[in-house]
Q: What sequence folds into this?
């Protein structure tokens, strides 16, 4: 996922904002690291499925904090809105699609294979369903057709895919300040209307509990690129208020009724406020001085870590819980997952991502030129093309 911003950024009226920072935004990597560790902490120290007993008894102190780790997902969505808007700027819809597919799928395929292997050999926490379920999971589309996720953490990927599909409309029209603000307004309206509307398609794409974070992320990037103004602050403010509305529902979905009733909600509201505040500081350039060299490397591991840590990690904890004390087991499994995530990033995600990106770019170029790279001349007779055939009219969006 690209995290580069332009050094010379233009205001909506054509002016350039002085001092707009360029280069990689290391703070984004730091936020990703904290969000990934928060989710891991929640799964390992708040869920009972791994330990076979209430985690409040296993980690009396840590459990009080771990029950809020699910908020790392919301922070991921917030960062995603910022990064997708930034990385899509100036790209065609074909380039946007290539960047998303080559970024998401290599590590995901490795994670599905790894998790399936673990669950097949140690079906202690979760059993592998039908082989067809594993095959469908490789598409990342299982959430749309009711096929169970191999790993419960994958539900967020389908939410991300919805966001990409919606934002692809902006890319087709051109990623501009005006179009991004219009997109934020329309998606906000859809998220407000969807819960009371009897429309399956609207409810499917509105994603009302997640959209406030994506939209706020987009607004924060517009602040970063063009400078803050009242409209962008209003967008962020509305999203913050909407996000607060869904805290209780998210706690129920993450913790269950019993734990939710015993867990105060105010820390969750405070963490969301903190996330918005940090992103606002990033948008205004207040965190540009953070340029620790290790952050980009750590940030690169967060995606594969997120993909592999849950079901495989819970299985390892469950398998060794009688032989290893809780704290060393927690730390050991976490270290193991981080190491495996780095191996996937280094030996799968990076090389396979490059190959996939190059192949897809050539495929998109073939579509643009209407001349596939390897025509089958022995099976298809040569025919003269009509004058002007397959030309893209001036002013139309390119693939």
A:
């Amino acid at each position: 996922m690209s995290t580069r911003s332009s050094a010379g950024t233009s205001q909506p009226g054509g002016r350039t904002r002085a001092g707009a920072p360029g280069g990689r935004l290391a703070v984004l990597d730091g936020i990703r690291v904290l969000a990934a560790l928060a989710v891991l902490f929640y799964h390992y120290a708040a869920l009972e499925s791994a330990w076979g007993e209430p985690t409040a008894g296993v980690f009396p102190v840590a459990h009080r904090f771990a029950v809020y780790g699910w908020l790392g997902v919301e922070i991921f969505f917030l960062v995603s809105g910022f990064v997708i808007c930034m990385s899509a700027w100036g790209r065609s819809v074909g380039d946007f699609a290539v960047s998303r597919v080559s970024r998401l799928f290599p590590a995901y395929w490795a994670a599905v294979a790894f998790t399936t292997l673990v669950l097949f050999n140690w079906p202690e926490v979760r059993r592998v369903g039908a082989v067809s379920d594993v095959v469908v999971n490789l598409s990342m589309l299982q959430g749309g057709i009711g096929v169970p996720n191999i790993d419960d953490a994958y539900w967020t990927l389908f939410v991300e895919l919805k966001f990409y599909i919606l934002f692809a409309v902006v890319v087709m029209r051109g990623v501009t300040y005006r179009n991004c603000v219009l997109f934020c307004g329309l998606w906000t309206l859809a998220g407000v209307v969807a819960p009371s509307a009897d429309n399956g398609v609207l409810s499917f794409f509105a994603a009302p509990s997640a959209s406030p974070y994506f939209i706020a992320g987009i607004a924060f990037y517009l602040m970063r690129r063009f400078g803050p103004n009242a409209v962008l602050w209003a967008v962020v403010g509305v999203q913050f208020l909407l996000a607060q509305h869904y805290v209780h529902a998210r706690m129920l979905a993450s913790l269950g009724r019993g734990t939710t009733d015993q867990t105060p909600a105010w820390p969750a509201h405070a963490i969301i406020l903190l996330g918005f505040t940090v992103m606002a500081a990033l948008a205004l350039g207040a965190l540009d001085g953070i340029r620790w060299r290790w952050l980009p490397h750590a940030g690169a591991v967060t995606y594969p870590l997120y993909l592999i840590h849950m079901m495989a990690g819970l299985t390892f904890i469950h398998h060794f819980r009688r032989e290893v004390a809780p704290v060393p087991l927690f730390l050991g499994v976490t270290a193991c997952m981080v190491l495996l995530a780095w191996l996937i990033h280094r030996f799968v995600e990076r090389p396979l991502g490059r190959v996939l990106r190059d192949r897809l770019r050539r495929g998109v170029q073939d579509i643009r030129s209407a001349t596939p790279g390897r025509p089958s001349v022995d099976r298809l007779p040569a025919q003269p093309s009509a004058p002007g055939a397959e030309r893209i009219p001036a002013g139309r969006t390119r693939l």
About this structure: DSSP finds 17 helices and two strands in the chain. The first helix runs from residue 26 to 46.
